[in-house]
Amino acid sequence: MGRIFSTVNEGPYKGAMAAIxxxxxxxxxxxxxxxxxxSKTGHRWSVLKEWEDCNRPFPAxxxxxxxxxxxxxxxxxxxxxxxxIWLDIGxxxxxxxxxxxxxxxxxxxxxxxxxxxxxxxxxxxxxxxSNLALQTMVKLGLIHIxxxxxxxxxxxxxxxxxxxxGIPLDEMGPYEGTxxxxxxxxxxxxxxxxAFDDLMRIGTRVPVKIVGRNPQIPGCxxxxxxxxxxxxxxxxxxxxxxxxxxxxxHNLAMLEAMASGMPVISLRHPxxxxxxxxxxFLVDNSEQAVERARLLLADIEFARKLGKCAxxxxxxxxxxxxxxxxxxxxxxxxxxRASVPPAS
Length: 344
Known about the structure:
With about 350 residues, this protein is of the alpha/beta class. It is built from 11 helices and 14 strands. The protein has helices spanning about 30-40, 65-75, 90-100, 120-140, 150-155, 195-205, 225-235, 250-260, 285-300, 300-315, 320-335; strands at about 1-5, 15-20, 25-30, 45-50, 60-65, 80, 105, 145, 160, 180-185, 210, 235-240, 265, 280-285.
């Protein structure tokens, strides 16, 4: 481990140089956008699986690695971070125990996601796994759990740390809103906990740009790169969020849209950051979504007013600096070091 210097870009220490110890971290890429934000904690990261260049640029402090190389280099890593409770614990934990490395498991959603309601066997397996296996590993100190939101934590019954998403405001915006269209970003939207039929109905009545891998939607494609995706956030009038329980009330795409200065039209949800009429609109169905969309499409200044509040919401509740600090505090605690001191 060495020492690196990182620039604090948000908050009261903006522009300050903070010295932190550089760690060597092994992880796996199930969530390109989340790992891109994690890269801003600093450190040196070795990453399994392919990187989606159309999603985010590959960070300078990352390296791609294959599993045989990772096994060989395992004693050199300081920390290991997994993102799939079904695949990563079985792969990483035996090596972490063998080489006495801390293992952190990120949980990206509620236990009830992913076909939970379709299969009694799947529901039973998840309950057994979380109630017995995961609880035992946590109680024995074999793993540490990180939840990405209080809502994601709410039905697991596990001890752990909640670290809210951190959106890099300096990379987002400025909002223009000149394209009279709604925007939805996501892959495989034809899924259980997304109101796909509502999306299709809304799209017949107001313009909706849909970005992502969605074979059921003719002409839909992912963004070419991070620059194009940010251009969509800047130019489209408002963001349309149709995720529903047990998915969270917000995802990274929605928060990035808000950080760009876009107002949001969203289905009502207990964990939504949207305050109706302040930073966007909450709706119960496609008919209400169309009505609110027409208001925003007809009045760009109104959209800009709501979007300004949306950006302030992200700055207040999803700060990139808080995300970095909370993650670094956890990383250093996991290796028995003191928390990272505030920048000065």
